[in-house]
């Protein structure tokens, strides 16, 4: 098991696409690290470059103490799980799991023992003689995981491993995978385009955009203090409210309403300057009557989230969303007031977070 360190890692594909642009990143030994970003931002390229399946244009990949930038993939001792699992359709579960050991020329009996041991651990004991075509999506995924676990990898690299599972299986697999990683303590890089998955699973995470890492932090840090408006709008199950605002003395004017300056930006804003005011729908308290410092308007849409509702208010020219607990939700056409939490609201200047 090893830490992973990337130094100035750059990948330019033939034809000129700069998929990775001078990335620096350190993932400590044993960490579960999630890599999040929209399609095409370079996540797969980053994983493949760590694995050695793509050669870096410049920069380096260091595993533990060892610079592996020019080392063949097979000699890096990394295990990668792909989105489509890449199982061999003509081999049974035992042989699929044992395949990497066969490549390493481990004796047949020892391979079988190891495959059974790992298969048992992943709840595959009854399925060892089946072929992938005779397994459900969730079972195939476990076989792919088992294959990775059968090898002594220094790190696990996962490329959107849950994206082919249906919603419920996906939640189960998420918890399962997380528990497994905890038990094994193997450094893990987990690529996803699903922010909920990243927030739920990661010890730390990075948000990528167009070949760059925009923010690295714990899920709580990234959720509560997105460093720019791109990250702010990408993270969260309901998008953050990002509203044009003007600084007026010690408060802000937002679409005709007067709200408090975010605590994190106190003393850092200039009177009269234009900023973007950010507050998550979850960090609003909602009332039917006027409240000091609230954004007031007419309710246009009420969406049922299960145990709560997402209420959209038309405030002047802006739309503002607030999460309202079950039983207190309004109906469209009502007057409504959303009071932001000053300790959770944020200010963005030219797209970047204003904070000490
Ligand atoms: P992601 O996994 O985040 O969706 P990728 O790493 O697959 O992103 O792709 C990043 C960028 O590199 C995209 O613009 C993609 O079109 C480009 N790209 C990926 N693979 C190749 C390749 N083999 N040749 C040329 N361009 C590529
Ligand atoms: Mg990809």
UniProtKB/TrEMBL annotation:
Which Gene3D superfamilies does the UniProt record give?
2.40.50.100, Nucleic acid-binding proteins, P-loop containing nucleotide triphosphate hydrolases
The reply on keyword Membrane is yes
* The entry's keywords: ATP-binding, Cell membrane, Membrane, Nucleotide-binding, Sugar transport, Translocase, Transport
Q: Which InterPro entries match?
A: AAA+_ATPase, ABC_transporter-like_ATP-bd, ABC_transporter-like_CS, ABC_transpr_MalK/UgpC-like, Mo/tungstate-bd_C_term_dom, NA-bd_OB-fold, OB_MalK-like, P-loop_NTPase
One GO MF annotation is: ABC-type transporter activity
* Pfam families named among the record's database cross-references: ABC_tran, OB_MalK
Any one cellular component term from GO for this entry? ATP-binding cassette (ABC) transporter complex, substrate-binding subunit-containing
Residues covered by the ABC transporter domain: 4-235
Q: What is this protein called?
A: Multiple sugar transport system ATP-binding protein
Name the source organism. Answer: Nonomuraea endophytica
Q: What is the lineage of its organism?
A: Bacteria, Bacillati, Actinomycetota, Actinomycetes, Streptosporangiales
């Amino acid at each position: 098991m090893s830490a992973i360190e990337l130094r100035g890692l750059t990948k330019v594909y033939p034809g000129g696409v700069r998929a990775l642009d001078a990335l620096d990143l350190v993932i400590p030994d044993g960490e579960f690290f999630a890599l999040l970003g929209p399609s095409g931002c370079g996540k797969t390229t980053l994983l493949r470059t760590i694995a050695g399946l793509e050669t870096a244009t410049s920069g380096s990949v260091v595993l533990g103490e060892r610079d592996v930038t020019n080392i063949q993939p097979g000699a890096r001792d990394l295990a990668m799980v792909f989105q489509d699992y890449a199982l061999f359709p003509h081999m049974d579960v035992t042989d699929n799991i044992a395949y990497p050991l066969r490549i390493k020329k481990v004796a047949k009996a020892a391979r079988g023992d190891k495959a059974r041991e790992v298969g048992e651990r992943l709840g595959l004991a009854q399925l060892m003689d089946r072929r992938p075509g005779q397994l459900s999506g969730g079972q195939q995924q476990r076989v792919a995981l088992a294959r990775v676990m059968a090898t002594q990898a220094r790190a696990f690299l996962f490329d959107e491993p849950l994206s082919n599972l249906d919603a419920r299986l996906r939640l189960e697999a998420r918890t399962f995978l997380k528990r497994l990683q905890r038990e094994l303590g193997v450094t893990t890089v987990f690529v996803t385009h699903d922010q909920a998955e990243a927030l739920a699973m990661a010890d730390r995470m990075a948000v990528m955009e167009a070949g760059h890492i925009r923010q690295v932090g714990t899920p709580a840090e990234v959720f509560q203090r997105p460093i720019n408006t791109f990250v702010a709008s990408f993270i969260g199950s309901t998008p953050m409210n990002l509203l044009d605002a003007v600084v007026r003395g010690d408060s802000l004017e937002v679409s005709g309403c007067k709200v408090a300056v975010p605590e994190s930006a106190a003393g850092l804003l200039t009177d009269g300057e234009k900023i973007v005011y950010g507050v998550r729908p979850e960090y609003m308290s909602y009332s039917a009557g006027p409240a000091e410092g609230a954004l007031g308007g007419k309710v246009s849409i009420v969406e049922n989230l299960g145990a709560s509702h997402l209420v959209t208010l038309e405030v002047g020219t802006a739309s503002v969303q607030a999460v309202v607990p079950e039983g207190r939700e309004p109906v469209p056409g009502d007057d409504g007031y959303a009071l932001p939490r000053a300790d959770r609201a944020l200010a963005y200047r030219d797209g970047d977070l204003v904070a000490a």
